[in-house]
Amino acid sequence: MNTQRFWFRFRKNRLAVVGIFVLLAIIALAVAAPILAPRDPARIDLDQREQSPSGAHWFGTDRLGRDVFARIVWGAQVSLGVSLLAVSLGSGIGILLGALAGYAGGALDALIARAIDLMLALPTFFLLVAIQALFPPNLINVIVIIGITSWMAIARIVRGQFLLLKQRDFVTAARASGVQPTRIIFRHILPNVSSQIIVFFTLGLADAVLVESALSFLGLGVPPYQASWGNMLNDGQIGILSGAWWVAFFPGLLILLTALSINLVGDGLQESLFK
């Protein structure tokens, strides 16, 4: 599909267009954090604790007097950054294993296929919690653990496409010409799977945002001293009981908008590329 036709079909999906504008706004919020919220998100001011939203504190303050808006904006960098890196890691693993399985076939394909089935059969979130509980909470651990437990779906898709495409004439001709297998995989077959990879990568971002938030909410993700949307939800539990609803409401709203907008964009990409 040419680029012009793709954009024409994508723009016809109004929900996808709304989703991409919302997502871009959230990304801009994260990028502009130093300008929008110069206040230190970790600054404690007990004299200002649980202040309701006002001109001085747009989204109010939490039980430690920290500015909720500043923590939302800086937390966007953490939540989005962790999700992007985790999905990139998981996608890299999935693409590599799926390509090897689909192209090589035989025993290697059977081994990787069984590994995919086994991982998909396990309750992923409980597996995440069990693994994360073994390590101290820090950004690197969160990224790696989400990445190594999120490669299976894209690996299955890539494997299936490679099994089909390696039978095509252009691959047979490349083999007959003595082209190296690695070149065939990365220069001839993989570009033809790029559309599926883009869609699954996009949808995977939404899952990663939710998983990171859930882990941080449980105290197993981003360290408590760092601002992230999941950590803010955790802090907001006590605020809800004391009437400070805004402490949990705003990070929850950002999580919802981010996951929803990414899913809308992913659905729009899927319709534009494959229908």
Descriptive notes:
Helix 4 crosses helix 11 and helix 12 packs across helix 13. This protein has 13 helices and no strands. The longest helix is centred in the first third of the chain and has 37 residues, at 68-104. It has helices spanning 3-12, 14-31, 33-36, 68-104, 106-121, 124-132, 139-148, 152-165, 169-176, 181-189, 194-217, 229-241, 246-274. It has one domain: Orthogonal Bundle (MetI-like fold), CATH 1.10.3720.10. It is elongated, with a radius of gyration of 22 Å. It is an all-alpha fold.
Describe how the helices and strands are arranged.
Blueprint: H1 3-12, H2 14-31, H3 33-36, H4 68-104, H5 106-121, H6 124-132, H7 139-148, H8 152-165, H9 169-176, H10 181-189, H11 194-217, H12 229-241, H13 246-274
Structure described in brief:
The chain has 275 residues and is an all-alpha fold. Helix content is 73%, strand content 0%.
Task: Pick out its properties.
mainly alpha; elongated; MetI-like fold
CATH topology: MetI-like fold
Major sheet, described briefly? none
Domain module tally: 1
Low-confidence stretches: none
Give me the CATH architecture, please.
Orthogonal Bundle
CATH superfamily: MetI-like
Percent helix, as a range, is over 70%
Tell me how many strands there are.
Answer: 0
Q: Approximately how much beta-strand content do the residues carry?
A: under 5%
Which structural category fits the helices and strands? mainly alpha
Question: Which term fits the overall shape?
Answer: elongated
Count helical runs. 13
